[in-house]
Amino acid sequence: MATDVASPAPFVLTLPGVYAPQHDTRLLMRVLEHEALAPGARVLDLGTGSGALAIRAAQLGGSVTAVDLSRRAVLTTRANARLHRRRIDVRRSDLTAAVRGHAFDLVLCNPPYVPSPTPEVPGRGRARAWDAGLDGRVVLDRVCDGAREALRPGGVLLMVHSALCDPDLTVERLERAGLPAEVRERARVPLGPVLRSRRSWLRDRGLLGLGAQSEELVVVRAVRAGSPAAHPAV
Length: 234
Prior knowledge:
The protein is an alpha/beta fold. Helices cover 28% and strands 23% of the residues. The chain has one domain: Vaccinia Virus protein VP39 (Rossmann fold, 3-Layer(aba) Sandwich). The chain has a seven-stranded mixed beta sheet with strand order 3-2-1-4-5-7-6. Helix 3 links the parallel strand 2 and strand 3.
């Protein structure tokens, strides 16, 4: 289903080097707002960045844990949670490392997904928020492979990324991990400055057409089968 990116993100402050809410944040937030989130539902925001998605999930009644590998992102999310008067458990973590052994009703993820001329994910700097290897899937694949462990039975994963990264492969990988999945939303948005700077390289790899001015974003929704069961709170 194609859609515009209409949902406004909560106002947030961002420290230098922290990913500010953009089209992908707003698209994922739109899908989040259509989930039937029960009061007190346990929510995990992977790669929280500014904390905008974590804050919105808390506003919708979720009990939210937010994680990010960036120290600046952790500080930013804590500050924004206080700004919005929301109780959010913010932890510095490489994906789910800090919450192993716990399961959630909903996992949100806006991971780094921009294809990069260098195969390695940056260890530091601003580009760590978006660069994700030659095919843009270095972090995506890790999320797909580890999401089932983070979800309680009946729990849902919502993840946004560019169609440049092959949404069909995301669905296939999630299903191989035991999570039936589908592309829930699509939106076409203008190319951002990073993609514009790599237009020639992306064309050479067959990822962008000649004269392309936009990209498609997708939100993939996956569900862990089974009836909800009790899990220890985080």
